[in-house]
Amino acid sequence: MTECHNQITKFPDAIGQLSDLTRLYLANNQITEIPEVLKQMSNQIKVDFDNNPITQIQEAIELLSD
């Protein structure tokens, strides 16, 4: 799924229901935190958050490393 350059500020919770999702490109938006819904997804996905103003770095790293 590619949603780049769209000024997205947060994830919809419904994204966690996309069980076949393997790649999520969210570069160049306005996302400030990585949502917990990504941790709940059972499959491993590649996520690109390049050029987003993420402010909660430590929490984001802990969220994705479990």
SSE topology:
Layout: E1 23-25, H1 37-40, E2 46-48, H2 57-65
Parallel strand pairs: 1-2
Outline of the structure:
The chain has 66 residues and is of the alpha+beta class. It has 2 helices and 2 strands; from the N terminus they run βαβα.
Explain this structure to me?
The protein is an alpha+beta fold. It has helices at 37-40, 57-65, and strands at 23-25, 46-48. It is built from two helices and two strands; from the N terminus they run E-H-E-H. The mean pLDDT is 79. The protein is globular. It is 20% helix and 9% strand. A two-stranded parallel ribbon has the order 1-2.
Ends distance: 23 Å
Q: Give the tally of β-strands.
A: 2
Task: Report the sheet-strand fraction.
Answer: 5-15%
**Number of separate structural domains:** 1
One letter per element, helices H and strands E, the order comes to EHEH
Range of helix content: 10-25%
What is the approximate shape?
globular
Structural class based on helices, strands and sheet pairing: alpha+beta
The main sheet comes to: 2 strands, parallel
What is the typical, i.e. mean, pLDDT? 79
Rounded to an integer in angstroms, the radius of gyration calculated over CA atoms is 11 Å
Low-confidence segments, ≥5 residues, pLDDT <50?
A: none
